[in-house]
Write a structure and sequence with these properties.
Blueprint lengths: L3 H5 L3 H15 L17 H17 L7 H36 L1
Helix pairs in contact: 3-4
Length: 104
């Protein structure tokens, strides 16, 4: 004869966990502030700022040779963020020119 635990696959420990989690879900969710780690990366300039900070710290501690590979990767990230920022600027200017031409 198969017992209930084998049939359902639910142990007593998991059954109590289910009860606890279902009780916590019934409470209304309050406006809790979002937990952050201190750095928000929303725009290319944010990425450039973080890269600059890390590379600057490595040079100030005279560890640029030890971390040269990482610095090289950060410089690549910095350059890509710079390109994206410049591309967005070019697109804005091009759109403004096209709009001005349409108005004429």
């Amino acid at each position: 004869m198969v017992n209930r635990q084998q049939k359902t696959g639910i142990t007593e420990a998991s059954r109590s966990t289910i009860k606890v989690s279902s009780m916590t879900q019934s409470k209304p969710i309050m406006n809790n502030p979002k937990q952050t780690r201190g750095v928000t990366l929303r725009e290319p300039k944010d990425v450039r700022r973080v890269c600059q900070r890390i590379v600057s710290e490595a040079f100030q501690q005279d560890e640029e040779l030890q971390y040269s590979g990482r610095i090289s990767q950060l410089m690549g990230c910095w350059m890509k963020a710079w390109e994206l920022d410049k591309l967005a600027d070019i697109e804005r200017r091009l759109e403004a020119l096209e709009n001005a031409k349409e108005k004429e």
